[in-house]
Amino acid sequence: MDSLQFSDVEGYGELLPRVLDAALGHLDELAHRPVRMPQTRARLHELLGGPLPLTSTPAEKVLETLVRGGQLGASPSGSPRYFGYVVGGTLPIALAADWLTSVWDQCGVIYDMSPLTGTLEEICGEWLVDLFGLPVGTSTAFTPGCTYANILSLTAARHAVLERHGWNVREQGMQGAPTITVLANERIHASVRRALNVLGLSGNLRKIETDADGRILPIALERGLKKASGAPLIVCGQVGDINTGAIEFLQPLCEQVHDAGGWVHLDAAFGLWAAATDMRHTLLAGLENADSWATDAHKWLNVPYDSGIAFIADKAAHRAALAMSPDYLQHNQPRERHTLDWGLSMSARSRVIPIWAALTQLGKDGVARMVQRHCDQAKRFARLLAEEPGVEIANNVTLNQIAVRFHHPTHDTDTHTQNVTDAFQHEGIGWAQTSIHNERKILRLSIINWATTEDDIDRAAESLLRNHRRLIHQGDMARCAQSVITNHRRIKEAGILQP
Ligand SMILES: *Cc1c(COP(=O)(O)O)cnc(C)c1O
């Protein structure tokens, strides 16, 4: 077969059932097989690489090779005992909807190109604003992830704060514009720093000191605001620190910034979902007073990658910063939603379809229960670990993130924490990675998969503790052996053992 005929590419009927088999096999295995990171780059190159094939390959063969590649090289990120980074699982209904998204191959841009997408964006936008208790009328954009949502929110912020100083950044650009002061939580996620970079705002970034868990100190903010007085101002805080899950003191933060005439942007990649629970009235009180919020659906809503959402309270500012109407995209429906007026992309995957499916299945109550369960599981995990001598929980476990330090009677804690993590990863009961928190090494655990059970938590905690004890014990054994050798040498030197 050296030229591909249309008839050759027909074959959904043969391919899709095989995909279903492979998918069910993979998903079924996830909970049972070791949670280990594959070390297979060379084998993947062998299997999937080499020169681009000159001639065509039968689709079934392509699929077979790809499935093999997936078996070899896919990380176990969907496992209920994968606690690495902050990686959400995938709800079955969201996966099903994601498959349909590909089947329908929808692309938003303007309403006409996908009435389904435009309408679902309206529906889900309102649902999410309600779920999180954001101001009625807050506008939304569905993005590839929280990084894009941060870029988009800060694009609106930049437009609005410059507008207040008589500058239209869309028309006049950034060169010669009034200088915008940006104050950010000193631990702000790299994603926000990238957004500021892209927007030409990093030059005037001032970091604001936080407490040990990563919340901006009101007094430090006060000082920063004093210095910024009168200038266009954006303040970036976080709802869910990447290591500790900490949430800013939202009420006073928003008040302080608004009194100074600034815009509050919150990086809320996973923490925003906690607003669906009763924590909305405690930890998240005052959330609605910010000006923009960026989050991920692929984290705590458990839809497949990739999927983020931006929320902007001032709809007019959002639209003014982004709306576009190129001549070639004729749209005659002024009332319908045209995706391109709200997002950064033009053509984009209809990410809202799995979001709609997940929200519909779970309902407000189901989202709240899933998020609360993960927070409770995190507390259980932390408690199990903390009962062991030498194990320190290095954060206040309020959300789903746990920062753990493993102490050793003689070794340095950073090294032992790394060694316990390596041994945990090697054992394959669960998986998580180290991070740096307050300049010290921690093991960071994130509970964020709908499929995780208490038994999964218990098994992972046991594995960690087993390795922590074994490494200490091994240290003891090594020291013991060392002292036997030393004694032996001393005895020898003293001539006692000489014949
Ligand atoms: C994951 C994360 C981001 C980046 O989100 P992406 O979806 O990876 O672009 C930003 N901030 C926080 C706190 C995160 O956890």
Hetero ligands: pyridoxal-5'-phosphate
Q: State which percent range the strand residues make up.
A: 5-15%
For the sheet with most strands, the description reads: 7 strands, mixed
Oligomer: single chain
Structural class computed from helices and strand pairing: alpha/beta
Radius of gyration: 27 Å
At a glance:
GO terms for molecular function: aromatic-L-amino-acid decarboxylase activity; pyridoxal phosphate binding. The chain is α/β, with parallel strands linked by helices.
Structure description:
It is a single chain. This protein is of the alpha/beta class. The protein folds into three domains: 13-91; 96-363, Aspartate Aminotransferase, domain 2 (3-Layer(aba) Sandwich), CATH 3.40.640.10; 367-485, Aspartate Aminotransferase, domain 1, CATH 3.90.1150. Helix content is 45%, strand content 11%. The protein has helices at 6-9, 12-30, 41-48, 59-73, 92-104, 115-132, 146-163, 169-172, 190-198, 218-227, 250-259, 315-322, 352-386, 413-427, 454-493, and strands at residues 139-143, 181-185, 205-208, 233-238, 263-267, 292-296, 308-312, 391-393, 401-406, 433-437, 440-446. It has a seven-stranded mixed β-sheet, with helices on both faces. A four-stranded antiparallel β-sheet has the order 8-9-11-10. The termini are far apart. Bound molecules: pyridoxal-5'-phosphate. Residues 86, 145-147, 189, 191, 240, 242, 267, 269-270, 296, 308 line the site of pyridoxal-5'-phosphate.
